[in-house]
């Protein structure tokens, strides 16, 4: 019993231990090999910058967070709708799926300049890029969830005289939920990539812009502070998505309820 | 036989798939099932019994031949049936209670009343669950139930909306002998009370004779009817009647016929 408890604590502590070791090695390597700060700043230096310039970092972080969350929210709404349409109808599926794949193959960096021509600089390109990049996994997952409904489940509904809409509402959507939530964890990370790319390629706000201007000043510690900030935001949003997933689709995690 | 058929199959043939890959599941199937009749279908595994159930409910269109229910040719899933599928297919995101209540959310006229009279319907579902011994599990999810318990919930789901036609595909297959025999009694009592039309697929010949008015024996795949056996034993039948000579003789007769299919 005591052993189990210790195992549990150890499991919880593991990520932190690994992180501490990682930073320690990094710090040590910088000192031992006398790496110049402009190439790779020591993590202690980066943390120092984070503390010193916390207000500025926070301001730019919040800008990025907003663009990301708005783009991500739009992607959920759009992805859910399109995913349901694709999964529910073989015609929409055969018509749109190849297009979606082709669209997803386009490197999203390439569309930022085009977006800037269309909507100018500012928040919009970041929002749109975040949307575009996180849209695809959501659509594909929701469509997969619908398309893989057990035929028996559909037969149960059909034998009761259910309409197509009823089958979609009572079986399709609940069945697609675990797929949707699984995709959200992937999509939120992608959304961050999208908004930061847009800010880096051509923006006047957000953490990507901050990193770019710091880089131009050869201010490596600030650039790295920006990287850390993105990572932290990514983890936070991921955790929120994972928490929602747990809550909304308990039944799909059935095995883990035993322990 | 029956003069007024509720369900009629005329030369029904069904092939799964097309071309060289196709499997002929049933061929030349003829049946006449009267209103309020309890029919049992027995036959070797893979002979097309489940297929027959799906044909009658309109879930599968026949390759050729005709299926008539209520005097009308079946072309799409028919209304007013309750079906217990061979594998329970309960929805994992619903509790046992919600699974059993599913037909109420879909079938008229309950559908319209369901939201406002939920408590009343829950009471009804609870009563059914109690008769199959699942009262304590109404708030559990299907994956928290054993295979036999899932089958019993499945049976409740087929019964809850008191359908006119009840299709039961091996509903007692995963149960122990005692529970099974207990449920025969429950099933018979329900039937005596409501007089629905029932089609029961089973591998258990005693079960068939206990419950049915008519037992149909199917041949090996492609399935067709090779024997129609009336069971004219008095009702209600009890476990004691299963040991009476008339009962045992019938079971032996059916067994001998099925043995021919395995030869
Ligand atoms: N969806 C399907 N696609 C192709 N072939 C099928 C399909 N379903 C059933 N079959 C074939 O049709 C035949 C009859 O199947 P069916 O499920 O009706 O048998 P059954 O009499 O219910 O058997 P059991 O007693 O084992 O349940 C089998 O040989 C099977 O291989
Ligand atoms: Mg079967």
How would you describe the overall organization of this protein?
The complex is a heterodimer of chains A (259) and B (263). Chain A has helices at 2-32, 43-52, 54-88, 90-105, 111-119, 123-147, 151-159, 164-202, 206-216, 220-248. Chain A is mostly helical. Chain A folds into 2 domains: 1-35; 46-252, MetI-like (MetI-like fold, Orthogonal Bundle). Chain A is flat. With 263 residues, chain B is α/β, with parallel strands linked by helices. Chain B has 2 domains: 1-80 and 165-171 and 197-202 and 221-263, 3-Layer(aba) Sandwich (Rossmann fold); 84-163, no CATH class. Chain B is built from 8 helices and 10 strands. Chain B has helices at 49-56, 96-106, 110-113, 118-131, 147-159, 177-194, 205-211, 245-262; strands at residues 5-16, 23-34, 38-42, 64-69, 72-73, 81-84, 165-169, 197-201, 214-218, 225-230. In chain B, helix 2 (96-106) packs across helix 4 (118-131), helix 2 (96-106) packs parallel to helix 5 and helix 7 crosses helix 8 (245-262). The longest helix of chain B is centred in the last third of the chain and has 18 residues, at 177-194. Chain B starts with a strand and ends with a helix. The chains are: A mainly alpha (259), B alpha/beta (263). The interface between A and B is medium-sized, with 21 and 24 residues. The complex binds adenosine-5'-triphosphate and magnesium ion.
